[in-house]
Amino acid sequence: MRGSAFSGIRVNEDERVDTEKPGLAEGEHRGMRDGLEELKSQLRQLRAERRLSMSGLELRAGLGHTTVSKALNGPTVPSEATVAALAQALGAEAGPLLKLRRQALPAVLAPPRQQAPKNSLDGDVDARFEERYRRYVEQRHGQLSVIGLDLSRPERASWPLDASYLSLEFATSTRAVGQGGSAGFSADSGLASSVGSGAQMETERAEQALAGLRRVLVRGMAGGGKSTLLQWLALATAREDLPVELANLKGLVPFMLPLRTLVRGGDLPGPQEYLRAVGCPLHAAQPPGWTDRVLDDGRALLLIDGLDEIPQTQRAQAQQWLRELLAAFPRATYVVTTRPSAVPEGWLAGHGFTELTVRPMSARDVAVFVTRWHTAARASADPGQEFEHLAALEEALKDTVRSQRDLARLATTPLLCALVCALNRDRRGHLPHGRMELYEAALSLLLVRRDRERDIDAPENLVVTEHQNIQLLQRLAYWLVRNGQTELDRETALALIDDALPAMPNLAQQGDAADVLAHLLARSGLLRTPAAETIDFVHRTFQDFLGAKAAIEARDIPLLVRNAHDDQWEDVVRMAVAHARPNERTTLLRRLIARGDRTQKHRTRLHLLATACLEYATELDPEIRQEVEQRAKALVPPRSEEEARTLAAVGPVILDVLPGPEGLEEDEARAVVETAELIGGDAALTLLKKFRTSYPAWWALSNAWKSFDAHDYAHEVLAHMTHLEAVTIRSREELAELHHLPSLDHVAFIGDFSGAEMTTPWAPADVRVLNIDRNPTLRDLDFLHPYTGLKRIAFFQCPNVAGLKPLAELSVDVIELHGCGAARLEDLKDLTGLRELGLSMELPNHDLGALPTGADLTRLTLGPNACAQLTLSGITSWPNLNRLDLSGPVEGLPQAMVELPELRDLILANNAGLFMLEQIPTCPQITELYLGQWRSGDDLALVRAKFPGLQDITIWAYLGCRRVDLTPLRGMPDLRIRILHALEVVGAEHFPPESVIRTPRPR
Question: What is the rounded distance in angstroms from the CA atom of residue 571 to the CA atom of residue 57?
């Protein structure tokens, strides 16, 4: 296929190629079947090797469940785009898989074009003209334009269709199993096939939904891509460069028939007048009767665009025109488009038409569209700096749309997505600071300019100005906002419009409230009827924009402030700040922070909302700006996990005011990442991308993986981290991404992963630290052999791990066993190279005799279960022990402290505490003490008496008592003190300021 307009464009689905197609030789049948089976086998094998679940594969490939299932197990050949997407998701080369796919395809996908015999003079003339006409269609429809777009350089409002086309997603009705037939039109019989009562809705890409259909009515909102779809069909058919799904269109001759153009001449044209009616300069050269012959032969593709764009009084005429065409040329193929409200459901069902509805673009589609739009723009850009600038704009815009929720809700149609791309380019990437300007441009485009510049004149028999449109829509939007609703019934909408009409006499003279509502539904592109007698806004962001404008015009600032704590009013309040005049803006923000000052329950949300509003305040009294920023300083940036949870509870609005990573302290960087992780979603992911090179945030950033799509986070965050040292794997989707990440030093697995999964498909030889957590199925440790560089291994809550002998074959220095009751500790005797050992399990005989006495341990950690009824007899087997970590009372501690001259660090955690120090002698060798449990009544005088050589002390005051008195430690001026989570610290004045470190840092 040459220069495919579709190659690299489709997102999915399967190609409906029948390997049992009549007319193929048996050898070709067999070769196709073998190729298809081998392709499916290879895909299944790759999935098994990558240990990917079906859902994980679907997410990574960006494909639907049905598409992936058919590609791996179905009887049809998957599309080229599907195979390429699966190859990428599976980390495989696409070339060999695509070669197998080509083997599975028949050599001929459709009958050759029907033409008159070569010895026919008329046939030769027809063929020559047809080729000439096809070249015209290629040139005429090769560019994609956004009509009504206001740019400083109008030539930038069009792009090559090849590069920018995105396959639409349709909602289709499918027949229940057993009903037979297909929802379409039989070219041979001329009879329609009914969908039947067992129909249900499913989603398919355009090329799938249209496959095999001869009569289709496409419904979609304004800017949804209906006209572009027809334009692409015309281009691909003229080039004979169609995807396999649409093989039934191969050899057809396309006729693009925009009804808005055809009706200008009065009566709708007959076949011989098609080219003249649409302004084709070849109309005079067409052979007499050529169009009639093409239609009669069933080789015509009639692309009839815009039933909604002709006056209502002419729609019955258009329906009759179509009926006559169908009766005269039943073998032709028809695709008709309309907005949903222009014609009733089933308008053409009696004539064998299948109705398809265009769905909004998904977030993944938007990202694909932005990429293709910029690819198309680069094709016509000036070489050099502008070309490079477009690449930077593309990446920045993806992040902007992802991070700004209102923009993400706006860019759900190709028209509005193209508007965002074009205005962003025109303003050189300053779109985030001109969001209100974007809404105004979009409203102008949808409400007036697009119809006017396409010469569509009052199709609903009303002439409504842009100002009138906005005033009417504001009324509806503000009613929804005030009443906390997202829908209103038709009766209420009519009443609201009826109340407004007396102030619009010119409009009132043209029609009543019902006429005006019909116009708004059909032409505004903002309203729809999701159910009978129900109306809502297609884009919630426009509802909030218009509702906020109405609130400011009504001077309803008290109402805005009174509801500002409600997250449904969040965007309304921010946009109201943008709409307001300077004095109104000052009043609104001052009242907002005042309400926060006096309302403890909503203080954090209100103060942070006021901070988020500053972005919209283009002109603001410096005094009120300073007041808002002062409130924010008490909250942002967060400095601890506790503060991160508090901010995350406010919701996504906090993402707009979180700073960094520049200028943040280490604790702040970590807490900002933790806040975004707790919120999750696309906007949070975009924020986290800023921290990819921030060393202080690396651990929090790697731990945030669990809150996001595994594939997106791995490729957009982890793969770009310059300090990535450790990751935690909690799902098989995350496991499948390991081989995309740089070499890792620490890896943790949480969950019931098998030994095979923990060694493939990635290379574990570089891993030095391995943690296995909460794995009830793991028994055998032989899988560890490939971990040749392992130095530290820990098992947490792995109750069925028994034999530990495989650990002796590794050069591990550190082993931890917590909650591993079945583990045979005697197997550790052979680990003479062990340096550190941690245990939280009941020890045999409640002493240390079962542990590896032949090893030269320097650190011993004993968890709560190990400390129960434990005596420390035998601890002198490790004379070089320098750290002892206890989680509960033990016998023999005083003697152990005397007999361990190298002991420097003592950790008392969980059920251990200061009371354990009462019986020990003075220990001058102890230089570091960690108190993991701070109780009311604890007296640090005991610490000073027992450890005169102490240099560092850490006090964890998170639970229980939150007040710490350092006064008993005065006289130890060289002591470094770290206090975690205390609410009050007394006596810090006795130490140099830099010696007392509090976490989180006081504000």
Answer: 36
Residues 6+ apart with CB under 8 A from 887: 840, 862, 863, 864, 866, 867, 909, 910, 911, 912
Q: Domain count for the chain, please give it.
A: 4
Q: What is the pLDDT of residues 378-434, one digit of tens each?
A: 766 666 656 677 778 888 888 877 777 667 777 777 777 877 887 777 666 665 445
Mean pLDDT comparison of 63-72, 148-157, 415-424, 793-802, highest-scoring range = 793-802
Cβ-proximal residues to 893 (8 Å cutoff; 6+ apart), any chain: 872, 886, 916, 919, 920
Q: What is the CA radius of gyration of the chain?
A: 36
Q: List, for residues 717-740, the tens digit of each pLDDT value.
A: 898 888 888 899 999 888 988 888
- 396 inside domain: no
Residues 100 and 171 in one domain: no
| C-beta neighbour count of 687 within 10 angstroms | 24
129-132 contacts at long range (C-beta below 8 A, 24 or more positions apart):
129/282, 129/285, 129/286, 129/287, 129/290, 130/253, 130/290, 130/294, 132/282, 132/285
630 vs 253: which has the higher pLDDT? 253
Closest CA to 723 of 700, 748, 705, 706: 700
- The two structure tokens encoding residue 904: 């420097």
pLDDT digits (tens, 9 = 90+) for 330-346: 999 999 998 776 677 77
**Shared-domain flag, residues 37 and 136:** no
One domain, residues 132 and 251: yes
pTM of the model: 0.62
Same domain, 38 and 145: no
Which residue segment(s) compose the domain that 281 sits in? 121-362
The DSSP bridge partners found for residue 405 are: none
Q: For 267-290, what is each residue's pLDDT tens digit?
A: 888 999 999 988 899 999 999 999
Mark whether 163 and 301 lie in a shared domain. Answer: yes
Please give the Cα distance from 696 to 670 (Å, whole number): 7
**Has residue 341 been placed in a domain?**
yes
- 145 with 87, same domain? no
Give the C-alpha separation, 639 to 647, whole Å: 11
